[in-house]
Amino acid sequence: RRDSVTAVRGRLVWFRDDPFLCGPTEAIRYEKDGLLICENGKIVYSGRFRADRVPSDVAVVHYRDHVITPGFVDSHVHYTQVGMIASYGERLIHWLDKYVYPEEMKYSDRKYAEEGAELFCRELLRNGTTTALVFTSTYAHSVDILFEKAAKYGMRMAAGKVLMDRNAPPRLLDSSVGEAISQTRELIERWHNKAGTRNVYAIMPRFPLACSREMLAAAGKLWKEHPSVLMHSHIAENSDEVFEGRKMFPECGTYLDVFKNHELLKPGMVLAHGVHLTLPELDTCHRTGAAIAHCPTSNLFLGSGLFRLRDAKTPSRPVTVGLATDVGGGTSLSMLTTMNEAYKVGALDGNPIDALRLFYLATLGSAKALRMDHQIGSLEAGHEADFVVLDPHATPLLTKRSRTGDGSIEDLLFALALAGDTDAVEATYVAGRRRYARAQDGGKKRD
Ligand code: GUN
Ligand code: ZN
């Protein structure tokens, strides 16, 4: 039996196009009795099950009735915040001071960082997430440690050192712009597209309130030197933040100009939240190619507001949008739970998001935001073989619901997103290898 070849059978679902722009049914690719064959980490066949396509020395794993879809892509999350998820009672700015910054300071300790990174990667896999764009801390070793863990599990991971030089405890701040940039440059050289890993670097100015103009300008300059890395920040999450930011950068015509003025708005920039961006600012995102990471559980938990997805995805000037957990502002690492909350945020806005669009955002949409749609987020042959197997019978409630639905794939996906969560993940495959399998006995095991 060849180790480098994997074959799985089940209901294959993926996207070829953006269902917000073309009709949902034109965008989806669905194979009710599908076969996926992976070789050396890549998909070599995806389509209707055909016994003659399976190499004679390869055993097919049959996930009967299960949904097989690209591994979820979390377009914004903080691995350094797994220890303070679910911290009570504050909104963004006080929450950062009271809970986030003290927790991130603990990452000056390597052992603490290693435990956090190990837990984080395993939890991603348990939730069917195979790629994430990850905030770390200001300490360069916290980036090394995460990239080492991602390499251990073979995951495609994007991350970077946090850049911040004001408005936080001094022990967490960069000592100077020059030092922060030289550490970032070293990390890019050490990790970005390093052979034998799937790691991608992202330059990470934290957000306007924590960065001087000099820091933002230096980040923009560094990006010109290394245009294939990503850029990642937070913007317009909370109304107090926007108010403070407008005061701190009075030279800017709009809040988003803080980034535009330093040439940070281009494809490859991923802006977390964007809840309070105005329509002209969304136009700017469209024109520049900057993407937005929609973080519904976080925006609800921190009382930040309701992201207007319909305005962002207006077909005449669509913005690239991905879905994100934003743990520890977010309250779950499950992208199914995140879809559930995204649906409710849309419903409050008179804009319920259908299941195909929810799954698109969590897979190809996020992959596009990370400029990785040629590699991940799809089951098309040639893509990297990262996928998740979802079980419509994971719980008694899901079993009941799946039986009473109308039998369409749209209905099944909607039931999985709204009534499923971590429990619904049967298995997670990374580069063609099964890296997580749910145990049958209610306990959890990992391969
Ligand atoms: N804005 C700046 N830093 C953070 C953070 O750590 N989490 C969230 N949700 N927003 C931020
Ligand atoms: Zn965040």
Low-confidence stretches: none
CA radius of gyration: 21 Å
Quick one: CATH superfamily of the largest domain? Metal-dependent hydrolases
Describe the sheet with the most strands.
9 strands, parallel
CATH topology of the largest domain, by name, is: TIM Barrel
What overall geometry do the principal axes of the alpha carbons give? globular
Distinct ligand kinds? guanine, zinc ion
- The number of distinct β-strands equals 17
Question: Which CATH top level class of the largest domain fits?
Answer: Alpha Beta
Tally of DSSP helical segments? 15
Q: How many discrete structural domains?
A: 2
The helix/strand class is: alpha/beta
Helix fraction?
25-40%
CATH architecture of the largest domain: Alpha-Beta Barrel
Strand content: 15-25%
Distance between the termini: 18 Å
GO molecular function: guanine deaminase activity
EC number: 3.5.4.3
Domain Amidohydrolase-related: 67-433
Keywords: Hydrolase, Metal-binding, Zinc
Description:
By secondary structure, the protein is of the alpha/beta class. The chain has 15 helices and 17 strands. It has two domains: 5-70 and 378-445, Roll (Urease, subunit C, domain 1), CATH 2.30.40; 72-369, TIM Barrel (Alpha-Beta Barrel), CATH 3.20.20.140. The protein has helices at residues 24-27, 92-105, 110-126, 140-153, 177-191, 213-225, 239-248, 257-260, 279-288, 296-301, 309-312, 335-348, 355-369, 396-404, 409-419, and strands at residues 5-15, 28-39, 42-48, 60-70, 72-78, 129-135, 156-160, 162-163, 198-205, 230-235, 269-273, 291-294, 321-323, 387-390, 425-430, 433-438, 444-445. Strands 5, 6, 7, 8, 9, 10, 11, 12 and 13 form a nine-stranded parallel beta sheet that branches. An eight-stranded mixed beta sheet has the order 3-2-1-4-14-15-16-17. Helix 3 (110-126) runs parallel beside helix 4 (140-153), helix 4 (140-153) packs parallel to helix 5 and helix 14 packs antiparallel against helix 15 (409-419). The protein starts with a strand and ends with a strand. The mean pLDDT is 97. Residues 76, 78, 135, 234, 272, 326, 329 line the site of zinc ion.
